[in-house]
Amino acid sequence: MTERNLTMLTDFYEFTMANGYFEKGIGNRRAYFDMFFRRVPDGGGYAIMAGVEQLIEYFNNLHFSEEDIAYLRSRKCFSESFLNYLRDFEFECDVWAVPEGTPVFPGEPLVTVAGPMIQAQFVETMILLTINHQTLIATKANRITRAAEGRTVLEFGSRRAQGYDGAILGARAAYIGGCQGTACVLSDRDYKIPAGGTMAHSWVQMFDSEYEAFKAYADIYPDNCVFLVDTYNVLKSGVPNAIRVAKELEAEKGIRARGIRLDSGDIAYLSIEARKMLDAAGFEDMQIMASNSLDEYLVRDLLVQGARVDSFGIGERLITSKSEPVFGGVYKLAAVEDENGEIIPKIKVSENVEKITTPHFKQVYRLFDNKTGKALGDVLTVHDEQIDASLPYVLFHPVYTWKQRIVTDYTVRPLRVQLFKHGKCVYNSPDVEDIRKYCIREVDTLWDQIKRFENPQTYFVDLSKKLWSCKNELLEACRI
Amino acid sequence: MTERNLTMLTDFYEFTMANGYFEKGIGNRRAYFDMFFRRVPDGGGYAIMAGVEQLIEYFNNLHFSEEDIAYLRSRKCFSESFLNYLRDFEFECDVWAVPEGTPVFPGEPLVTVAGPMIQAQFVETMILLTINHQTLIATKANRITRAAEGRTVLEFGSRRAQGYDGAILGARAAYIGGCQGTACVLSDRDYKIPAGGTMAHSWVQMFDSEYEAFKAYADIYPDNCVFLVDTYNVLKSGVPNAIRVAKELEAEKGIRARGIRLDSGDIAYLSIEARKMLDAAGFEDMQIMASNSLDEYLVRDLLVQGARVDSFGIGERLITSKSEPVFGGVYKLAAVEDENGEIIPKIKVSENVEKITTPHFKQVYRLFDNKTGKALGDVLTVHDEQIDASLPYVLFHPVYTWKQRIVTDYTVRPLRVQLFKHGKCVYNSPDVEDIRKYCIREVDTLWDQIKRFENPQTYFVDLSKKLWSCKNELLEACRI
């Protein structure tokens, strides 16, 4: 895999601020930053965390080359002592993150970075870019696979992705979120995302007839025959030719054709009619794949109409999350340490209530009901708080504080893992295959009400009493 | 700049088809493919071509490493002779493309590839991915800069981009389309897109007061003072502190502060009030920048409301083209050569009339009115046709053929350049700075009716009589 140094993939103001902290002698003050998001795309009930492996690569590669230093010097606004600092840069931060594949919710810190102000600030752009992108696509993939109700969903969107990484890492994120594979070969070679595909319309056009095109394909790939049947006329030509070649394949080699693909037209009608024709010809096992600008809404709608589709190839609407192509993660200062090493929580107020941050260096816990195995809610606490599962726990709403719920017979799990300890990586990313399985298990812990597309229930993300009090005190102090 | 070999960034079916053509002995048959699009995003009147330089890099780098061969062998569906062909792969195609920065229209071939079937097919995914992405962003940037009516527009979206190239090459495309700069440092280092930026809210929060934060910034960057004024309260605190520090900067160093930035709240109201305060304090030259989830519609709306904004920082809605995040370019077979080297035009029919392709190996001409300098229309011809500008030319509508227009006193220009000749690059990409200037000049050749956001006039993209007849004959022949 090609290693790229993405250290310079950052907003220019990260450098002006870094140099500024350096010059003012406060660059080494320890600061705490949280990455979190405020709402789930498409009005969904949860998002699927993704991108942590690439974030770790970024931190591990963080360094400034002589070329970078020369570029920065040419900008004539950074001091030589700062450039020397960059030349000898060593990453010293602690980093925590929610593991990939975990369902996550608005308001909870997905990534926390603690370390020298100058460093903890600098990594903002890449943390947001990496997690925002992959979480967006994993979340969309999870919606689409849910709509497909157990049918296969494949990611087919490379050609419409927003840039090369949009395709490559988008395929990875889609797999984490639930897709069974991709069309993207590079994602298979480098990230072990199973890639597949058979033929385009141009294959069919290159032969003198559709039959000859299918026949040629079956000669070469007898084990992987999925015929694209909509180049001329699906029901009059495509399906009959597919059946004819499937029969010959069976007669000549004893191999069953895998199926057909519909890439245009009325998928509901055509799939139902094609199914009848395949069944009547004795090919009940031949599958029907559909792939025409689909998303979770169209997939669900097709199934409501009784479409006989066994697998879906999803392109542009998945790889760009077309209906909502932005995951709005932000990265905010949560605390700084004073000279004595005491943590001073920081809050960012706003006239928009939902833009007020939750201060302090925090921990995140997820509580599971022991009877059902279902997730009860997440609790944000001050970093050193523990939740003792042998005692009842009071979940209460951070705004409507009279809304309380006492939970008993539960298990508690810290939601995040530590990735870096004083700049050294202390976490091994799981295989993407394991992440995908973990995602399926974790989504299973959510109640159906959280999972529906329209008006899902809001999952509890509450604050501990201690954290709630801290936030309120800071809010009171801000009142002018 | 890090070189990446993106040869394997392709759909798996490109390989199954390539191996298939190879095995059937038709891999070297010469084929002609066109890349074109069917509609302009956001209902616009034109798109801005971008991505050609990256496409050239891709073609120049096209080769298969031993690692790639090993991966393909592991898939157990490709012949050893095919893998040997890939090992010795040499790109032999001819490639033509519309230069970057050119306004382009639905239905015209933006890229044409002619060469051995096996190769001309294989490059489909990367041509589409590259041109679709950058053309999407350049087109959006052009809309936003048009809305800003001469004010500065900067691209600020890295953190919300869809992957790393989405940020890096998105900044490049945005610059081509009309932005004056970016926040993305890597795009500046590698692509000479001017990057800039000053401070985030966290800078302001890190000091004991807003005044001290601004003062510290002015100490270090006296020549580049743009104060972010919305951390606490824009009019009660942010602007007064900015004015105080600006006065001190002037008194102490004789330097004028550059301006202030608004990143939240009611930009129309706040900018008008802030303008009054700055003017009253004698800082008529301090500029006001706005940057809060803006796009062309909000920019236009702000200006209609009389907002006093001098420059716009545009993030997620530009870097993802949020309102329409997909550019739907397609890549279709247009012709093949027979054994005698005769070009056989190919058509792809569809029940959707707009999905019917225009067959044949084509040329594209743009006609300009000599009196006004304005573009009159584009004409697609068979490849060997010339348009003699000394004679009147009849433009006619390809569907409503009675709609004709005779043009005289015009200049004709082939719209495309040749990039590769038998696999060798014969084109030097211009500097991105020159592309940007060229784009401004070329957009100036479009009538205002084409440029408006709502219901723009449809620009003429016509066929020559010869090409129109060819298309009609093929359509007649398809009729079942």
Automatic annotation (TrEMBL), chains A, B:
Enzyme class: ligase
Top-level division of the source organism's lineage: Bacteria
Record GO terms (molecular function): nicotinamide phosphoribosyltransferase activity; nicotinate phosphoribosyltransferase activity
PTM comment text: Transiently phosphorylated on a His residue during the reaction cycle. Phosphorylation strongly increases the affinity for substrates and increases the rate of nicotinate D-ribonucleotide production. Dephosphorylation regenerates the low-affinity form of the enzyme, leading to product release.
EC number: 6.3.4.21
Keyword NADP belongs to the record: no
Biological processes annotated in GO: NAD+ biosynthetic process via the salvage pathway
Domain Nicotinate phosphoribosyltransferase C-terminal: 362-471
Reactions it catalyzes: 5-phospho-alpha-D-ribose 1-diphosphate + nicotinate + ATP + H2O = nicotinate beta-D-ribonucleotide + ADP + phosphate + diphosphate
Nicotinate/nicotinamide phosphoribosyltransferase domain: residues covered: 154-320
Entry keywords, A to Z: Glycosyltransferase, Ligase, Phosphoprotein, Pyridine nucleotide biosynthesis, Transferase
UniProt domain Nicotinate phosphoribosyltransferase N-terminal: residue ranges: 8-132
Keyword RNA-binding in record: no
Protein's pathway: Cofactor biosynthesis; NAD(+) biosynthesis; nicotinate D-ribonucleotide from nicotinate: step 1/1
Pfam families tied to this protein: NAPRTase, NAPRTase_C, NAPRTase_N
Cellular component terms per the entry's GO annotation: cytosol
Classification via NCBIfam families: NAPRTase_put (TIGR01513), PRK09243.1-2 (NF006695), PRK12484.1 (NF009131)
PANTHER family: NICOTINATE PHOSPHORIBOSYLTRANSFERASE (PTHR11098:SF1)
Function according to Swiss-Prot or TrEMBL: Catalyzes the first step in the biosynthesis of NAD from nicotinic acid, the ATP-dependent synthesis of beta-nicotinate D-ribonucleotide from nicotinate and 5-phospho-D-ribose 1-phosphate.
Family: Belongs to the NAPRTase family.
UniProt name for this protein: Nicotinate phosphoribosyltransferase
Organism field: Agathobaculum butyriciproducens
Lineage: Bacteria, Bacillati, Bacillota, Clostridia, Eubacteriales
